Amino acid sequence: MTGLEKIIEDIRKESEESVGAVMKEAEEKTAGIRAEAKAEAGKAALSIRKEASVRTEDMKKRTESAAELSRRKAILTAKQELISEAIEKALSEAEAMPDEQYFATVISMAARAAHPEETGEICFCGKDLKRLPAGFSERLNAALPEESSLSVSKEAVRISSGFLLKYGGVEENCSFDAVFAAKREELQDKVRGILFS
Questions:
Q1: Phi and psi of 175, rounded to 5°?
Q2: How much is the pTM?
Q3: What is residue 83's predicted lDDT score, i.e. its pLDDT?
């Protein structure tokens, strides 16, 4: 081998060794980068799984809470409907009482509503005026507070049941509708106690 060939051979060997060292270093760096990336990917995946788990649990709780709220609203609505139906039924039954019981109730209500030491007028709907029992006015006035009196008006008023009291120009609505409306909350509490205790 000539001197030039030997120099070329040495350069080639040196070059191969240098390339080999660079390649080895590159492979080691690549392996390190891969390991680092794999570790980072593992951490990211774990973080994503934890976050997804938290979100899923939160969503589950919110869904359960919304379902419970919806269930309670449905129960409350059903209870309110039952209470309203019970009150409406009681009103219908009060309006449909037999005449004797109906007018005994009217006398009792009028005795509580009448103004002491005043003379007034009791007014009925046309249906009730036609079915007033004999001696009603006397029985009514006997039940009133002392020195109070009510005369029965011959003119029908626009109510479905019960009566109106008139003192001078002032009317007091004692119709069953008005009494039930005024006592609605109290009646609801009583009905609720009966139905749901």
A1: -65, 155
A2: 0.59
A3: 73
